[in-house]
Amino acid sequence: MHFKSIFILLKISIFVLLSACGDADKEANLVNLHTAASQDIVSINFPADTTESILSINSEFDFILQGVKSNNTDTVNIINDVVWSLSENALSTIDQKGHLVASSTAELITLTAQFGHLTESLELKISDAKFDEVIELNKDSFNIDMCLSKDIKPVARYIDRDGFDEIRPVDSNIINTITWLIRNQEDNSSSKRAYVNTVANQASLQTLEAGNIIIQASALSVYTGIMKTSADFNQSVGNAINSIKVCNSSDTDLNTCNVSSAHIEKDKSISVISVANYQAPDGTNFNKNISQNSKWGLDNTVNAGIDLSNDLQSLIVTGKTESTSAILSVACGEITQSISGIDITKGVTLNSTVSCGTNINCLDKSSNITIDKLSVSSFSVRANDIDLVDNTSETFSTRPDEISLQVTANYSNSTSAVITLDDELIYNITLGDGTVIEDKLDSKGVYNVLGSGSARIVLDYRTEEFTVLLDIP
Amino acid sequence: MNKSVNTLRALLFCFFVSIYIPAATANTGFYFSLAPAMVEIDTENASTRPTLADLRLGYEFDIHQLELSIMSSLSDDSLNQLVIDVPSVNSVFYRYLPYKDTSVKIHLILGVSKVEVESSYPNVPVTQETFDGVSFGAGFQESFTSIPQLKLKLDYIRLYNGDNLNIDLLSLGVSYAF
User: Fold this and answer.
1) What residue ranges of chain A have pLDDT lower than 70?
2) Which residue of B15, B41, B43 is in closest CB contact with A14?
3) pLDDT value at position B17?
């Protein structure tokens, strides 16, 4: 009786219950608050130094949304959970990482970024004004010391269809077409003190030596159709560097790391970086990986080799000749060796020691590199053409008159070599010596068989051992 | 939509289990339970866990239980500057005991709940919102040998199964049968 009523009640309840579903709109407020609170963000903005309000047609730009923490002091760039959008009917597009691709025609649009319950908007002008020339090296003047990098945002004059100037940062299309010319101020000679490198639409000034330089930007004026070289931009490169040292690229604590000597096996490599300690304008000190803008040298390229990594952020040192050594040297500043024929944009590596001499605007350091013999990862051993396994007994079907071992070393660099007669290979009979087998005179690795029984021979090569176990009938 | 489908599957599972498992004779009568409970409000990016006092009045007959649950806030929870409180939760649960003869009694729970959530955050007005819908979960009960009417109970119930947030309840307490 009870059951029937209950099941009827249950069925009715289930139909009623099923009509109740989640409601995303109703949940939005609570979800948004949790999103903002998860990063402790109470307000958002587009930071002025990384935001543009006028972009060229067909250009690209990466917008950054900045969040202000609840202490109203700290700020952080918000990477995740930002919803980016453009106004309806916009021809430009933006992805959910804030990467905007401008339309091919001029338009006025609104960019909106939403993070949690917070929303920030920006009026954007997609302009068809044409690039004329670079008029400033960077939006703001700056100081830089030698062997450092500084992202720059060159400012250019664009001219619209009515002939009015539009002064704004160089767009992503033009920035990659600029040729940068750098001269030393004192004699107008081509400078090796610095260069400008442009990667992923971002130009950066890379400095190698202290001194005063003149930078010019040369690019095709889209407005006039002729090449235009900018006015001189004077820039000083300082020398507020306290020390330089070599560290492993895997070191995370740049304050304590140091490599004064290192071991490498032949055909193996290690990755090192140069670390400089600088004095900041506020008097504090900081450490920086300066591998890209250092000058590297190796005194012996037969024994070892050096190459900068593809991203120039570390140096690869490779051992070439075993049981030798080489001196790795690194310097920041003007060295005594000539670098006149070197493309400094690809990094400076010399086949000789680099040194500062008496130049006060230079610091150097060296590390001793020892190239060790290759280590052995395993052996392949045969006895009378029978493959042996380490420390595993092998039984001959008939008693041989003699046993010949053939030993192959498999090295850590994946190469192999027969080492049967190698002086470094030591044979030692530890069982059956004189009763089962004996060394054959003047025949290394060959044994006379004396009688039946078990024999054990231990092979020792570069600290690795292989135990030969033989049962002789 | 997927969550709604999952909810439907859970409900149908409970329903068919309740139909096909043979009934057994058991106690009949009223009971009440009291438990501290933790509610987890879970979103994709973060979650908060305020606590409540969970009072329930129920009627047990055979292997079925119907109970009314009234919960009120014990403490709020904070995530940085976000403060989340659950002032009240009101629910009606049906509990089914599929395996009566085991020492630990496992209950399948089905019901409806109404959850009040209050939130406050810098520069945002204090907001109180209501989330109601299907609830489902499982419970465990074990009688004290010296006082058979007194049982230790543990319930884990999804009070609200939303598209972008879920509200779960974990309560551990005692119940007493009259």
Assistant:
1) 1-22
2) B15
3) 41
Q: What's B9's domain CATH number? A: 2.40.160.20
Yes or no, beta carbons of A22 and B4 under 8 Å apart = yes
Domain that holds residue A94: 25-117
DSSP character at residue A433: B
Q: What's the domain count of chain A?
A: 4
Query: For A38, which of B45, B110, B127 is closest by C-beta distance?
Result: B45
Question: Is residue A276 located within the same domain as residue A352?
Answer: yes
Query: What is the model's pLDDT at position A38?
Result: 95
Domain span at B144: 2-177
* Contacts A21 to B, Cβ<8 Å: 4, 7, 133
Q: Provide the CATH number for the domain around residue A359.
A: 2.60.40.1080
- Please indicate whether, in this complex, the C-beta atoms of B119 and A33 are within 8 angstroms of each other: yes
Last residue of a domain, one of A341, A372, A403: A372
Pair (A249, A359) in one structural domain: yes
Chain A nearest CA to B149, separation (Å): 23
Neighbouring CB atoms inside 10 A of A254's CB total: 16
Phi and psi at B148, nearest 5°, equal: -60, -25
A11 part of a folded domain: no
Chain B contact present for A114, CB below 8 A: no
What is the tens place of the pLDDT at every residue in A398-420?
999 999 999 999 998 888 999 99
> How many domains is chain B built from?
1
Tell me the per-residue pLDDT of B3-55, one tens digit each, with 9 for 90 and over.
444 444 544 444 444 444 444 344 688 999 999 999 999 999 999 999 999 99
Beta strands in A128-268 (DSSP E): 130-136, 144-145, 149-152, 155-159, 165-169, 179-184, 194-199, 202-207, 211-220, 227-229, 233-238, 241-248, 261-265
How close A62 gets to chain B, by Cα (Å)? 24
Task: Return the number of CB contacts < 8 Å for A and B.
Answer: 110
> A interface mutation test: which of B80, B83, B114 has the most A CBs within 10 A?
B80
Indicate if A267 and A364 belong to the same structural domain.
yes
* Same domain, yes or no: A268 and A364: yes
A355 and A247 in a common domain? yes
Q: What is the SS3 assignment for B47?
A: strand
The two three-digit tokens of residue A414, written as one number: 């994946």
Where is A363: in which H helix or E strand? strand A362-372
Residues of chain A contacting residue B134, judged by C-beta atoms under 8 Å apart: 17-18, 20
Cβ A81–B45 below 8 Å, yes or no? Answer: yes
Neighbours of B146 (CB within 10 A): 6
